[in-house]
Amino acid sequence: MDPSHDGRGHHQKGSFSQESSSYMHGDTAPPPPMGAPPNMMYYSPGMGYPPGAHAPPPPMPHQGYPPGYNPYPNDYPPQPQVYHYPAGPYFSNPPTYHNVDRTKAFVRGFVLCSCVIFAGLFAATLIMALMLHPQLPVYTVNSLSVANFNISTPLTADWNTTFSILNDNDKLNGVFTDFKVDLLYRDDALAMSFVPDFELEKKEIRRIDERMSSNGFLLPRWELDEMAKEQASGSVTFILRIASMVEFKSSTISTKMSLILALCDGLKVVFQNNTGNGALDNGGRPIICQLYM
What ranges does the record give for the region Disordered, renumbered to this chain (predicted)? Predict the structure, then answer.
């Protein structure tokens, strides 16, 4: 008897060759060993679906995006983010922390207060000036006479003039300094004198008498000839020029020093009987001078 056969027609374990040969002669293969049933929830692709299960519908084909549609960022491959920082000293210099608002508010308040103060001072000065309203003085020539008038080289003559100055202000006094008087023939000086400084009260008139001499004054020959022709006609016209620095003031306000120039033109001196003596022909009326500043 074959030792690999157990008497019941079955082969013993451990003989692969004999077992294979028995399959080949038409014997039926033993059933597979019983194992655990397959899990209905987990299965791999290709294994199919268990009996009774309904397969899901096939996926819809990819249709693409409609025109003008912006896909979500996840539809594209991620791109590296690039951060752009503003140029300039903002990030290069560390910020300083201080109260900027308070500083600006202080500067604005200071400027505003200064403007208000200056505006107030200007308004007060303007009001005072309008209230006081300084008036220029009035210059008049009362008389002019000459003696020993001799047209020669040099010219000789003795002059005597009287003029008046009126302070026409009723609230301001007038202070006159650097007072100078010149007697002119056309544009050349014939005589000169200086008057000491003085002050005129409100509405005050001062009468000034000045004596001058032409000794030492040289004139061009052609002017001497013109003067001789006028004297031969009986009269010669002269100009009196009065210059001074004037300041008006009161107990509360004062004006700046200003140069006032008074020109008293058209002083016609009439000579008597072709002599060297003459006097102003004004008909007894004072001659008003023109003022320039």
Answer: 1-30
